[in-house]
Design goal:
The protein has 290 residues and is an alpha/beta fold. The protein has six helices and 15 strands. It is globular.
Length: 290
């Protein structure tokens, strides 16, 4: 049975002002609903912003840590209604702070992901998550990644093996901090950002809905480049380096089935051959010439 859903990835700027960030997010959700969007993926750190320096984050300038039961997410849940919405914030859990993504609908929180992989000095600002888990939503089974997580193939593969059909990749991904190009599209991080999105989709034969911050936070200049990538690794819609919404209407199950019709990567895995210890035993022997 055909089921068409509209997948949307947002590129936009969200700063430190929590109240303003929530209000802006609610307005974007309402506009997306009018446009028929079923899944809307916001960037990482929309509510309260991201850190301003990757290498040496200032403890006095960290994003405010919020409760998942607080009024901020409650407002997003009310606005979501029948839509599925993924959004990022800094989560407070006792004395720990996490870079967290939540997926919600009007029914409440459907799934949560705490960022696992931490680049540069991010561990000075956040504790690390320890798991990747997929979950069911009105648009299908979803897994979430937060920016640097998608650099590691194992992250997306774990979610795909857990049944994820859509990967929501929420990012606050900046241009290079050591060798920044004059133009964002020419920056090496811009190339890597697109490469990872397409590779994670193609190798797992799933959809990737990839959002990102735009603008500037402290010393960081964000790339934008929100996009929806199909299960063959093709970019179906993109904002490029500008703010806006990349959206496409697709039959998720039909497109994934088509991609996997002849070559089904998940079915054809050979985990028995991937152990480093096993590989080290496969050495070329020296012939006995005696």
């Amino acid at each position: 049975m055909t089921r068409i859903v509209t997948l949307g990835a947002l590129a936009g700027h969200f700063g430190r002002d929590v109240e303003r960030g929530v209000s802006k997010a609610v307005g974007i959700i309402e506009a997306a609903r009018r446009e028929g969007v079923d899944l809307l993926v916001f960037p990482d750190a929309c509510i309260g912003g991201y850190i301003g320096d990757l290498r040496h984050p200032d403890p006095a300038e960290l994003p405010p840590a919020l409760s998942p039961d607080g009024p901020e997410l409650a407002a997003i849940i009310r606005a979501a209604g029948t839509m599925t919405v993924c959004i990022g914030y800094t989560e407070a859990d006792g004395d720990q702070r996490y870079n967290t993504a939540v997926c919600v609908s009007g029914d409440g929180i459907l799934g949560t992901h705490r960022k696992v992989h931490q680049p540069a000095g991010e561990s000075m600002a956040y504790s690390a998550g320890d798991a990747f888990r997929a979950f069911d939503t009105p648009v299908g089974r979803i897994g979430m990644l937060i920016d640097y997580d998608k650099t590691f193939p194992e992250s997306a593969r774990t979610l795909a093996l857990d049944g994820a059909r859509i990967l929501a990749a929420l990012s606050a991904w900046p241009a290079s901090v050591t060798d920044r190009a004059a133009r964002l599209p020419a920056d090496r991080q811009a190339r890597l950002f697109d490469l990872y999105d397409c590779a994670r989709a193609a190798e797992n034969q799933v959809f990737v809905v990839s959002s990102n911050q735009t603008g500037v936070m402290g010393t960081l200049r964000f790339l934008g480049q929100a996009k929806v990538v199909g299960p063959g690794g093709e970019i179906l819609s993109t904002t490029r380096s500008k703010g806006g919404l990349a959206a496409v209407s697709v039959d998720v199950d039909a497109e994934i089935a088509r991609a996997r019709r002849v070559l089904n990567h998940l079915d054809e895995l050979r985990p028995d051959t991937y152990s480093p210890a096993r590989s080290s035993q496969a050495q070329v022997g020296t012939p006995d010439l005696s």
